[in-house]
Target: Transcriptional regulator
Amino acid sequence: MLRMNTLDQRIISQLLGNARASYAEIGKVVGLSAPAVKRRVDRLLDSGVLRGFTAVVDPQALGWGTEAFVELHCRGNVSPTRIRAHVESLPEVAAAYTVSGAADAIIHLRAADIHHLESALERLRALDIVESTVSTVVLSTLLERPPVPQ
Amino acid sequence: MLRMNTLDQRIISQLLGNARASYAEIGKVVGLSAPAVKRRVDRLLDSGVLRGFTAVVDPQALGWGTEAFVELHCRGNVSPTRIRAHVESLPEVAAAYTVSGAADAIIHLRAADIHHLESALERLRALDIVESTVSTVVLSTLLERPPVPQ
DNA sequence: GGTGAAAAGAGGGTTCT
DNA sequence: AGAACCCTCTTTTCACC
Model:
């Protein structure tokens, strides 16, 4: 595990805001030269604190505007690893979490439309670890923030 | 609304995989010159299909490893806009959705630890639109995929 | 959408503290 | 160790075709 300081956090903060910012731009904000920023970014990538860089797209625009949250109730005791192995076979799974409470997991589904969502749900319910599901369809996305603030 | 073709989708796909890829690299994959790629990316940014570029960080590594999903039940009829206005005042809100079913919204909370999460939940419940909440604490993240596949 | 040129940035080695 | 400086090579970003 890496020990990070304020400088690293501020660099990450800049990259969260704009992953295509140049090292010089970032350096100007955090008070470092461009090569110094690059070496820190490389180190953060190596250590796994930074996993990579991605584009933020409008799901609606790409035709993936229909979402749902599904509480997963499994048959008997199923390990998180097995749940993961099963749910990652569905491309519509945007995220999956094991949780406290009655449900075993919460699945975030993302699909093109209601029919696509229904099809994904059917395939999810057909997994042999699944006993029952409780779905909540998303009507609108009020807010979505990048993974980590500041 | 913008009409997009396969070329745009492939460019977006490349940027989803690596937002810091050079235009020349992207162009080599999709069969375009670097300036042509840049023109399309600029147009996608202008039109809002591409919202920007961000870093993918390990929340654990930055000390934001504790998450929860909260079903929000509001007093009477509250518009999505008002819900949004209220919940975005909490920095711990990672995402918020209006949903079908009994709850009015689902809030995705992200905090440093259980105590931080508890504090965020208290502030959420203190909002005057909120009648009651049902929280589900995330035990582990099994899977998290970028916003849009392919 | 491609081409070519000027400006900006990346990346590596060296020096300084 | 880590950051700044410098130099070369690549990339970006225009112009124009």
Remarks:
- The two ends of chain B are 21 Å apart (CA to CA).
- Chain B has a mean pLDDT of 93.
